[in-house]
Amino acid sequence: MAQLAADETGLPVKADLISRSQTIPLKFLLGILSELKRARLVKSHRGLEGGYELALPAAEITIADVIRAIDGPLATVRDTSFKDLVYEGPAEGMLEIWMAVRASLRSVLEHVSLADLASGNLPPDIKELAANYGADERFPAGSQ
Question: N or C terminus: fewer CB in 10 A for the chain?
């Protein structure tokens, strides 16, 4: 999606170009593009001049939209709805923790658009969160 957002030709982008540019196996990419098309985030065009393009302006598509289209909810637990999760005893507070995790993910991923990503101009609060993470000694560069 970032590749499509960064494209300035105004022409559909061929899947093999995206595949090579992003080092994504073509067959795998075509599955992803199919999911994105089903979610109405991309449009496909057939023929010699065919390819893929964003279905909406890049500024109107968030990273959360893309992740949801491909993977579903931003934070899943046991592949079930939060309303169906039950924790008992000392683990009873886990539901609230999972809800907070989802809210935290949303606060970042719904705040960054494809235009932000493609331009390299991430919102200041996102940059600050990343800098704070990078400064945390518990998580050396490259670790989780």
Answer: C
